[in-house]
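@here heads up, posting the sequence + SMILES for the zinc ion run so it's all in one place. Ping me if the SMILES looks off, I pulled it from an old spreadsheet.
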Amino acid sequence: MEAGEDDEDNAVRVTKKLFQEASPEILDEVCGVCSTLFEAATDPEIYQCSACKSFFHINCLNDAILDEKRCPTCKRPINL
Ligand SMILES: [Zn+2]
Ligand SMILES: [Zn+2]
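bot reply: prediction finished. Complex structure tokens:
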């Protein structure tokens, strides 16, 4: 393995979903960062990693990728 070279290929996407679209599937899911359930009132938009399928609050995701643009759960580089 050549360090660094594979990062582009391994890059994941984080896609935005509306709570209503993701529901009811989202009701059983917790945020990959804070392990809290999502709620329609406070989380109209939810973000999901394309690789590990983890869901995140937008604020949690922003905090987690502020320094290092990697998925908080699977640690793959995020292709924004
Ligand atoms: Zn969260
Ligand atoms: Zn991930």
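MO: Residues 31, 33-34, 36, 56-57, 60 surround zinc ion (ligand 1) (CB under 6 Å).
MO: One more: Helices lie at 7-10, 19-22, 58-65.
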